[in-house]
Model the fold of this input.
Amino acid sequence: MEHLVQSLILGLLIGGVYALMASGLTLVFGVMRIINVAHGALLIASAMITWYIWRATGIDPFLIAILMTFLMFGVGWLLYRTVISRIGAASVSMSVLLTFGLALTIEGLLNVFAGNKFRSATPSYFDQSFRLGGLIFPKTQVYGATVALVMLAALYFILSKTWTGRAIRATSQNPTSAALIGVSATGVAALAFAIGTATAGVGGSILSVLYPFFPASHYDWISRLLGIVVLGGMGSLPGAFVAALLLGLAETLTATYISLQWATLVFYMTILVVLLVRPQGLFGSQLREDVAA
Amino acid sequence: MNKISGRSFNRRKIFGLTVIAAAALTVAACGSPATSSKAAVATAPTVIGISLPLTGDFSQPGTQAQRGYEVWRDMVNANGGLLGHPVELKITDDASNQDTAVADYTRLITQDKVDLLLGTFSSLLNFPASAVAEKNGMLYVEPAGGAPTMFTRGFKYLFFAQPAVASAQADVFVNWIKSLPVDTRPKSAAYATQDDPFTRPVIESMQSQLEALGIKTLYSKVYPAETSNFQTVASAIAAKKPDIIAQGAVFEDGVSLVRSLRQVGYSPKALFQTSAPGNGSQYSTGVGAANTEGVFYTVSWNEKANTPLNKEFVAAYAQKYNNEVPAEDAADAFAAAQILQKAVESVGSIDQTKLADWLHANTVETILGPLSWDATGAPQSSFILAQWQSGSVEIVAPSAAATTTTVVYPKPAWK
Done:
């Protein structure tokens, strides 16, 4: 029983962080139909910057996350204005090619400037845990999940309560009508991309503490995050959230009760089964695809 | 990706041609070499053909191997060359690609007609490349490629320049346990290994050997390479309370497991990991310097090892590459070249068959220690058992290579 509870706790803590990392990816797809393959590379870039700041100043990486939110927001906005906007409403496959190129560029730059080395931030509490009876709550996981949830709540607030957020959602649901009532499509797209990149900024700061990383780590992350987005339904934020928690749980429960070797496989098998029954993913809607087409 | 590496390859090629052209002009301008008395007989250079992964997945170790070869070349040439001929390395980049490695070696042998070969990096690339050498009857000493399948093909010209194949890597750790008085020996063990051709055979063979010693297996799991969360593994292991934890860790998985063990608060009497702890400061900063105390790992070479020529190698490397400490991959490449050199000097020619026969019959002193081979080219020595002690790495076994007689056991609790 204690094993089960422990696995559930760890699964949810891990899933919460995955949810934040995937949120930007699904948001960008929802608004622009862009599959941002560079999301993982942006995550690693942010982790690297966080690591350097932590190393130089000793500031807690979870506090650096605040700085990274704004920094990566700016980076995202700039990237959209200079690079991403060029493909405009071109096909989804174009967006994959472009952002893959971007991912390789970022990886290359990190290799040149930071070197092909493993890094991980180790604040003083990195190897400590909170304990409750026999249960263990690793501090880094708890803080990481907390920061992720706060960021997700902020994202939810922005998207549902502010005019900008409504404009973003309107564009994602029906771009033509949104344009008709005066929403600037490019402005919204740039904002959405910047917000998406900002989540990668926070995600990267968390990653720098939780997982050792090096420039090429982004391949692992992007495949995991794309899996989450597909399972949740392309473009659906609640979907990504639920799918991320599912992935976290699938990982820990399979590892505890079946076999480590199956842990990742089970997740992808879940995707396969869900897609057979619900091709649009858990929370996706087919209608939106039709409108966009 | 192909486009990018293809382009840089062409650029490098052009650069290479320019350098060769410039070198040719310089030589022509200097006229006949009447300066050096040793090389007075205008001897043709002995050309050694090598293909290495200088770009792509294995670029990091591939570059280290190149440095190891080049340090050896400089040392040999400073001492009058190989059988009086200056040594020239012809190194091509295979971009970590099997097909390119095969094409490279084929071209080096058939078109460039190089005198000798040295191997490339990794089992993946050496597997097909060694077949090219074998088919052409060329001696093939390779610095990194210890997968057991390399040696099931009955090759005659293949030699592996490390102390042991992967499945024998853990022997030195098992022997150390055997050396302990029976009542202080660990009683139980937990094993976890990444599903990787370099780590899995090490842990599997260790498990069967320790079981034969009566050490009970409480946990044994294989995990895929993309595993990034180790808390569940750590808590499952902690629940069993094993005396030994042995992990087949490549790198980040090793760091993550130590951190997770620390988080769940379980410290075994002995902690063994395959290659992760061999990454110096990348490892100690990853797990926290205090947490390295007592961690064991096996390795083919260490910069402190008291083997012939090792000090000179480390010094020459540091001088050539702004005071860096050579990586294990550079040392393995240097050793491969040492083996080739010894065979050529002993046979007195570059007759490939005679060289292979000589190596099958003799032991060669290298910076990794003495090496000898069975009929398939698999080495017959043992790895070095290293341990983190007070923030740095010491060699604890075998005694001939040891830098200390102290072994930290049992491992102190996490601080």
